[in-house]
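Sample 3 of the quickstart, ligand adenosine monophosphate:
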Amino acid sequence: MDVLTISVAAMEAAASWRAEGLVQAFVPTMGALHEGHLSLLRIAASRADRVSVSIFVNPAQFGPGEDLDRYPRSPERDLEMLERAGADLVFMPSAGEIYPEGFCTWIEVEGMTERLCGAFRPGHFRGVATVCSILFGILRPDMAVFGRKDAQQLAVIRRMVRDLRLGVEIVAAPIVREPDGLAMSSRNAYLTGQERAQAPAIHRGLMRAASAAAGGQSVPAAALIGSFIDEVAGQPLLRIQYAELVDPDTMEPMQKLDRPGLLAVAVNAGSTRLIDNILLAPGRGALEVDP
Ligand code: AMP
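Result:
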Protein backbone atom coordinates (compact mmCIF):
# COMPACT_ATOMS: atom_id res chain seq x y z
CA MET A 1 0.00 0.00 0.00
CA ASP A 2 1.44 3.37 -1.02
CA VAL A 3 0.82 6.29 1.35
CA LEU A 4 1.27 9.57 -0.49
CA THR A 5 0.90 13.16 0.64
CA ILE A 6 1.81 15.08 -2.52
CA SER A 7 -0.68 15.54 -5.37
CA VAL A 8 1.86 14.96 -8.14
CA ALA A 9 2.91 11.64 -6.61
CA ALA A 10 -0.73 10.48 -6.34
CA MET A 11 -1.37 11.68 -9.87
CA GLU A 12 1.58 9.67 -11.18
CA ALA A 13 0.63 6.51 -9.30
CA ALA A 14 -2.92 6.63 -10.67
CA ALA A 15 -1.65 7.47 -14.16
CA SER A 16 0.57 4.38 -14.15
CA TRP A 17 -2.48 2.21 -13.34
CA ARG A 18 -4.35 3.81 -16.22
CA ALA A 19 -1.42 3.15 -18.55
CA GLU A 20 -1.62 -0.53 -17.59
CA GLY A 21 -5.34 -0.57 -18.34
CA LEU A 22 -6.27 -1.14 -14.68
CA VAL A 23 -9.66 0.08 -13.41
CA GLN A 24 -9.45 2.36 -10.37
CA ALA A 25 -12.15 2.82 -7.73
CA PHE A 26 -11.73 5.73 -5.31
CA VAL A 27 -13.11 6.15 -1.78
CA PRO A 28 -12.90 9.68 -0.36
CA THR A 29 -12.96 9.93 3.46
CA MET A 30 -12.15 12.28 6.31
CA GLY A 31 -10.44 9.48 8.29
CA ALA A 32 -11.34 8.26 11.80
CA LEU A 33 -12.35 5.17 9.89
CA HIS A 34 -15.02 2.68 10.92
CA GLU A 35 -16.84 -0.29 9.43
CA GLY A 36 -18.95 2.05 7.25
CA HIS A 37 -15.83 3.27 5.48
CA LEU A 38 -14.49 -0.27 5.13
CA SER A 39 -17.75 -1.38 3.50
CA LEU A 40 -17.14 1.25 0.81
CA LEU A 41 -13.66 -0.13 0.32
CA ARG A 42 -14.99 -3.65 -0.13
CA ILE A 43 -17.49 -2.46 -2.73
CA ALA A 44 -14.67 -0.59 -4.49
CA ALA A 45 -12.44 -3.70 -4.47
CA SER A 46 -15.23 -5.87 -5.86
CA ARG A 47 -15.62 -3.57 -8.88
CA ALA A 48 -12.09 -2.47 -9.71
CA ASP A 49 -8.50 -3.65 -10.10
CA ARG A 50 -7.07 -0.95 -7.83
CA VAL A 51 -8.55 0.92 -4.86
CA SER A 52 -7.45 4.38 -3.80
CA VAL A 53 -8.58 6.07 -0.59
CA SER A 54 -8.15 9.67 0.50
CA ILE A 55 -7.98 10.83 4.09
CA PHE A 56 -8.48 14.58 4.24
CA VAL A 57 -10.37 16.59 6.82
CA ASN A 58 -11.48 19.23 4.35
CA PRO A 59 -11.47 22.66 6.03
CA ALA A 60 -13.61 24.10 3.22
CA GLN A 61 -16.65 22.04 4.20
CA PHE A 62 -16.70 23.19 7.83
CA GLY A 63 -18.38 26.45 8.78
CA PRO A 64 -17.21 28.88 11.46
CA GLY A 65 -17.97 27.41 14.89
CA GLU A 66 -18.23 23.85 13.54
CA ASP A 67 -16.05 20.96 14.67
CA LEU A 68 -13.05 21.25 12.30
CA ASP A 69 -10.53 21.57 15.14
CA ARG A 70 -11.89 18.72 17.22
CA TYR A 71 -12.86 16.41 14.35
CA PRO A 72 -11.52 12.94 15.36
CA ARG A 73 -8.19 12.08 13.78
CA SER A 74 -6.51 8.65 14.00
CA PRO A 75 -4.12 8.42 11.03
CA GLU A 76 -2.02 5.50 12.28
CA ARG A 77 -5.02 3.35 13.10
CA ASP A 78 -6.64 4.34 9.79
CA LEU A 79 -3.57 3.24 7.82
CA GLU A 80 -3.50 -0.12 9.63
CA MET A 81 -7.19 -0.64 8.82
CA LEU A 82 -6.68 0.30 5.18
CA GLU A 83 -3.64 -1.94 4.82
CA ARG A 84 -5.60 -4.88 6.23
CA ALA A 85 -8.60 -4.08 4.05
CA GLY A 86 -6.41 -4.17 0.94
CA ALA A 87 -6.26 -0.52 -0.22
CA ASP A 88 -3.60 0.03 -2.88
CA LEU A 89 -3.05 3.76 -2.44
CA VAL A 90 -3.82 6.19 0.38
CA PHE A 91 -3.67 9.88 -0.40
CA MET A 92 -3.29 11.99 2.76
CA PRO A 93 -2.62 15.56 1.66
CA SER A 94 -2.17 18.60 3.90
CA ALA A 95 -4.65 21.49 3.60
CA GLY A 96 -1.92 23.54 1.87
CA GLU A 97 -1.45 20.81 -0.74
CA ILE A 98 -5.14 20.91 -1.70
CA TYR A 99 -5.65 24.67 -1.32
CA PRO A 100 -2.32 26.26 -2.23
CA GLU A 101 -1.67 29.98 -1.94
CA GLY A 102 -3.92 31.82 -4.38
CA PHE A 103 -6.53 29.04 -4.69
CA CYS A 104 -9.78 30.67 -5.85
CA THR A 105 -11.93 28.19 -7.80
CA TRP A 106 -15.09 26.80 -6.22
CA ILE A 107 -17.85 24.48 -7.37
CA GLU A 108 -21.43 25.53 -6.61
CA VAL A 109 -24.15 22.96 -7.23
CA GLU A 110 -27.19 25.22 -7.13
CA GLY A 111 -30.60 24.55 -5.64
CA MET A 112 -30.30 21.18 -3.97
CA THR A 113 -27.42 22.38 -1.79
CA GLU A 114 -29.63 25.02 -0.19
CA ARG A 115 -31.98 22.46 1.36
CA LEU A 116 -31.70 20.00 4.28
CA CYS A 117 -28.12 20.05 5.63
CA GLY A 118 -27.25 22.91 3.26
CA ALA A 119 -29.78 25.18 4.98
CA PHE A 120 -28.05 24.66 8.32
CA ARG A 121 -24.48 24.44 7.02
CA PRO A 122 -24.07 27.23 4.46
CA GLY A 123 -21.06 26.60 2.22
CA HIS A 124 -20.76 22.97 3.30
CA PHE A 125 -21.61 21.43 -0.07
CA ARG A 126 -19.54 24.01 -1.93
CA GLY A 127 -16.57 22.70 0.07
CA VAL A 128 -17.56 19.07 -0.54
CA ALA A 129 -18.10 19.51 -4.29
CA THR A 130 -14.87 21.45 -4.69
CA VAL A 131 -12.68 18.96 -2.82
CA CYS A 132 -14.22 16.01 -4.65
CA SER A 133 -13.58 17.62 -8.02
CA ILE A 134 -9.96 18.33 -6.99
CA LEU A 135 -9.47 14.73 -5.81
CA PHE A 136 -11.11 13.39 -8.98
CA GLY A 137 -8.75 15.61 -10.99
CA ILE A 138 -5.69 14.25 -9.20
CA LEU A 139 -6.60 10.56 -9.24
CA ARG A 140 -8.89 10.47 -12.30
CA PRO A 141 -10.66 7.34 -10.99
CA ASP A 142 -13.02 5.29 -13.14
CA MET A 143 -15.49 5.23 -10.27
CA ALA A 144 -15.90 6.65 -6.77
CA VAL A 145 -17.87 5.06 -3.93
CA PHE A 146 -20.02 7.21 -1.61
CA GLY A 147 -22.17 6.10 1.34
CA ARG A 148 -25.94 6.57 1.36
CA LYS A 149 -25.51 7.76 4.95
CA ASP A 150 -24.76 11.17 3.39
CA ALA A 151 -27.62 11.02 0.89
CA GLN A 152 -27.59 14.71 0.03
CA GLN A 153 -23.84 14.60 -0.57
CA LEU A 154 -24.36 11.63 -2.88
CA ALA A 155 -27.00 13.54 -4.87
CA VAL A 156 -24.80 16.66 -5.06
CA ILE A 157 -21.77 14.71 -6.31
CA ARG A 158 -23.87 12.85 -8.87
CA ARG A 159 -25.24 16.16 -10.17
CA MET A 160 -21.77 17.73 -10.31
CA VAL A 161 -20.29 14.77 -12.20
CA ARG A 162 -23.17 14.90 -14.65
CA ASP A 163 -23.11 18.66 -15.19
CA LEU A 164 -19.33 18.92 -15.50
CA ARG A 165 -19.01 15.66 -17.49
CA LEU A 166 -16.32 14.44 -15.13
CA GLY A 167 -16.62 10.87 -16.39
CA VAL A 168 -16.49 9.25 -12.95
CA GLU A 169 -19.09 6.58 -12.20
CA ILE A 170 -20.63 7.26 -8.79
CA VAL A 171 -21.42 4.10 -6.82
CA ALA A 172 -23.77 4.33 -3.81
CA ALA A 173 -23.14 2.12 -0.77
CA PRO A 174 -25.75 1.06 1.82
CA ILE A 175 -25.73 2.58 5.32
CA VAL A 176 -23.77 0.49 7.84
CA ARG A 177 -25.29 0.54 11.34
CA GLU A 178 -24.33 -0.44 14.87
CA PRO A 179 -26.21 -3.49 16.19
CA ASP A 180 -28.76 -1.17 17.87
CA GLY A 181 -29.44 0.67 14.59
CA LEU A 182 -27.39 3.85 15.04
CA ALA A 183 -25.74 4.73 11.73
CA MET A 184 -21.97 4.47 12.07
CA SER A 185 -20.25 7.85 12.01
CA SER A 186 -16.89 9.23 13.05
CA ARG A 187 -18.87 11.81 15.05
CA ASN A 188 -20.51 9.11 17.22
CA ALA A 189 -17.28 9.30 19.25
CA TYR A 190 -18.47 12.69 20.56
CA LEU A 191 -21.60 11.23 22.21
CA THR A 192 -21.82 10.94 26.00
CA GLY A 193 -23.06 7.63 27.42
CA GLN A 194 -26.60 8.97 27.84
CA GLU A 195 -26.71 10.52 24.37
CA ARG A 196 -25.41 7.29 22.86
CA ALA A 197 -28.15 5.35 24.68
CA GLN A 198 -30.86 7.60 23.24
CA ALA A 199 -29.44 7.92 19.70
CA PRO A 200 -30.88 4.60 18.34
CA ALA A 201 -34.33 6.23 18.52
CA ILE A 202 -33.36 7.96 15.25
CA HIS A 203 -33.25 4.65 13.40
CA ARG A 204 -36.36 3.38 15.21
CA GLY A 205 -38.16 6.53 14.05
CA LEU A 206 -37.09 5.92 10.44
CA MET A 207 -38.32 2.32 10.71
CA ARG A 208 -41.66 3.52 12.08
CA ALA A 209 -41.97 5.77 9.07
CA ALA A 210 -41.15 2.77 6.86
CA SER A 211 -44.07 0.85 8.41
CA ALA A 212 -46.34 3.79 7.67
CA ALA A 213 -45.01 3.91 4.09
CA ALA A 214 -45.81 0.23 3.61
CA GLY A 215 -49.46 0.89 4.49
CA GLY A 216 -50.57 2.79 1.38
CA GLN A 217 -49.92 3.76 -2.21
CA SER A 218 -50.01 7.49 -1.45
CA VAL A 219 -48.91 8.32 2.09
CA PRO A 220 -48.82 11.99 3.16
CA ALA A 221 -45.32 13.23 4.00
CA ALA A 222 -46.73 14.62 7.25
CA ALA A 223 -47.74 11.11 8.38
CA LEU A 224 -44.24 9.74 7.72
CA ILE A 225 -42.53 12.66 9.39
CA GLY A 226 -44.99 12.41 12.29
CA SER A 227 -44.07 8.75 12.84
CA PHE A 228 -40.42 9.74 13.05
CA ILE A 229 -41.06 12.66 15.40
CA ASP A 230 -43.21 10.51 17.73
CA GLU A 231 -40.36 8.07 18.27
CA VAL A 232 -37.61 10.65 18.73
CA ALA A 233 -39.70 12.92 20.97
CA GLY A 234 -39.50 10.25 23.68
CA GLN A 235 -35.77 10.93 24.09
CA PRO A 236 -35.09 14.14 26.03
CA LEU A 237 -31.49 14.52 24.85
CA LEU A 238 -32.41 14.43 21.16
CA ARG A 239 -33.56 17.55 19.29
CA ILE A 240 -34.70 17.22 15.69
CA GLN A 241 -33.12 19.80 13.40
CA TYR A 242 -35.02 18.69 10.31
CA ALA A 243 -37.04 15.73 9.10
CA GLU A 244 -38.17 15.96 5.46
CA LEU A 245 -39.45 13.76 2.68
CA VAL A 246 -37.60 14.63 -0.53
CA ASP A 247 -36.94 13.38 -4.03
CA PRO A 248 -33.76 11.25 -3.72
CA ASP A 249 -32.12 12.84 -6.78
CA THR A 250 -33.10 16.50 -6.57
CA MET A 251 -33.79 16.90 -2.81
CA GLU A 252 -37.06 18.67 -3.77
CA PRO A 253 -39.70 18.29 -1.02
CA MET A 254 -42.44 15.72 -1.65
CA GLN A 255 -45.94 16.27 -0.24
CA LYS A 256 -46.82 12.60 -0.43
CA LEU A 257 -45.06 9.31 -0.94
CA ASP A 258 -46.56 8.12 -4.23
CA ARG A 259 -43.15 7.13 -5.70
CA PRO A 260 -39.82 6.38 -4.02
CA GLY A 261 -38.78 9.14 -1.62
CA LEU A 262 -36.01 9.85 0.83
CA LEU A 263 -36.87 10.60 4.45
CA ALA A 264 -33.81 12.58 5.53
CA VAL A 265 -33.22 13.71 9.11
CA ALA A 266 -30.73 15.62 11.23
CA VAL A 267 -30.85 15.36 15.00
CA ASN A 268 -28.78 17.12 17.63
CA ALA A 269 -27.72 15.01 20.59
CA GLY A 270 -26.15 17.55 22.94
CA SER A 271 -23.50 19.28 20.84
CA THR A 272 -23.27 16.43 18.32
CA ARG A 273 -25.15 16.59 15.06
CA LEU A 274 -26.27 13.22 13.69
CA ILE A 275 -27.73 12.63 10.23
CA ASP A 276 -29.58 9.61 8.94
CA ASN A 277 -32.09 8.71 6.25
CA ILE A 278 -34.16 5.95 4.72
CA LEU A 279 -35.35 5.35 1.17
CA LEU A 280 -39.08 4.65 1.18
CA ALA A 281 -41.46 3.27 -1.43
CA PRO A 282 -45.27 3.42 -1.15
CA GLY A 283 -46.82 0.06 -0.31
CA ARG A 284 -43.37 -1.42 0.32
CA GLY A 285 -41.72 0.50 3.16
CA ALA A 286 -37.93 0.66 3.28
CA LEU A 287 -36.22 0.16 -0.07
CA GLU A 288 -33.15 -2.02 0.06
CA VAL A 289 -30.77 -0.75 -2.57
CA ASP A 290 -27.97 -2.92 -3.88
CA PRO A 291 -24.54 -1.32 -4.13
P1 AMP B 1 -16.65 10.74 6.04
O1 AMP B 1 -15.30 10.23 6.42
O2 AMP B 1 -17.61 10.83 7.18
O3 AMP B 1 -16.58 11.99 5.22
O4 AMP B 1 -17.30 9.65 5.09
C1 AMP B 1 -16.62 9.17 3.97
C2 AMP B 1 -17.55 8.29 3.18
O5 AMP B 1 -18.01 7.22 4.00
C3 AMP B 1 -18.82 9.02 2.70
O6 AMP B 1 -19.12 8.59 1.38
C4 AMP B 1 -19.85 8.57 3.69
O7 AMP B 1 -21.17 8.58 3.16
C5 AMP B 1 -19.40 7.15 3.95
N1 AMP B 1 -19.95 6.68 5.23
C6 AMP B 1 -19.77 7.24 6.45
N2 AMP B 1 -20.47 6.56 7.38
C7 AMP B 1 -21.10 5.55 6.73
C8 AMP B 1 -21.98 4.50 7.13
N3 AMP B 1 -22.37 4.34 8.39
N4 AMP B 1 -22.44 3.66 6.18
C9 AMP B 1 -22.08 3.82 4.88
N5 AMP B 1 -21.25 4.78 4.44
C10 AMP B 1 -20.77 5.63 5.35
